[in-house]
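Re: the 173-residue chain
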Amino acid sequence: MSLLKEVLPWWARWLALVSAASVFGTICYNKGKQDEGEKHIAYVNQQAERSNKIAKAQQVVVAQTQIKYVERIKNIYVKGDTIEKQVPIYITQADNVRFAINAGFVRLYDAAWSGEDPGPAADSDREPTGISLAQVAAVDAGNATSCRAWQELVIGLREHYRRLQLTTNVLAP
């Protein structure tokens, strides 16, 4: 050690010590950055895996819901068509002659479906429209079928949304 004191002046020894400390500090700093980078990469990979699991589980939910409700809605339309075809059985030509659909009925019916006010009643509302009772029944059966199909669609979409939420919440902590 005394040889080192005689050969190197104090400022050179000090410079060597500071240089060694800075090299050691740089190595430690870079190693820390590397460790943090690796942790970040591991976290990103974990999130990607979790997202893939959620996406796959949601695809299963979509497929199951679609299979279930497409079939239900098809059945509703098939049953509705069957009912519409039976209108002539339940409403005969004699019924059509005996019961007249007046303009007031048509105006109220149109107002109900449009959501608009039909306005005040008039004498013209008592006049016949030329629409038979069978036509009204067929239109009403078609409307009921469409409403039932939309109702089933809404129920299916609600169930679909709940199942997607459940899938997402179970797989994502």
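The radius of gyration is 40 Å.
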